[in-house]
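tool_call predict_complex ligand=iron/sulfur cluster
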Amino acid sequence: MADELLYDAGDFGPWLKSKLDPSTLANAVVACGDCSACCSTFDAIPIGRDEPATLAAIPVEFLQRVENQATGTTLLLTSETHVCPMLRDGACSIYDVRPRACRIFDCRTMAAADLVDKEGRHAAMGERVDKWVFSYETDDDRARQLAVLDAVEFIYRHPTAFRSRGFSYEPSWTATQAIRIHELFLPEREKNQETEIALISEAIAIMRRWADIEHRVD
Ligand code: SF4
Ligand code: SF4
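tool_result ok
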């Protein structure tokens, strides 16, 4: 334990607040150091039509248009082992014009939601996620962390409700959504059997509001 390397994830409260600020959809500040684990994790990386510099920097053989999408999204395809073709010698070769999806990705969301997956294609990222350590300045910070964990449990408790509306259960997605709906699970909210269906409706409404914001950014 003594020689285990840990990483400072920052103060939980301010960090959480930043995740609820739509302006952070433009960029996330993560102290990645020499880590590039998330560049070897996903099947594909979406690129919006308002990212021409990004599209121009990527060889066409790695790009796939997604038809019938209002946002005109193009996918940057990764290899069979999920490695991004723009990853060279452990670093992003198009860093200055990397996709927005890469710029806003913050694996601390999974640390905050305690969604640490060290299996299969998530293994390398899971190892990194497991090493983030938040600090908590106030009781409210701790209450919000617990609310995020409750939100994760809630999302997993209602797979039919969320899957039937097209929501993914990818760990990073689940963590992001749990953060967005966590205020439904703060102690001051009265919880009982009667509110469960209402909670699902409220959660879905919040997720859809964020989806609309994300499409506007696209
Ligand atoms: S896995 Fe996390 S720390 Fe590593 S590059 Fe991705 S966002 Fe940064
Ligand atoms: S484009 Fe760059 S930052 Fe994005 S996944 Fe590929 S190598 Fe990583």
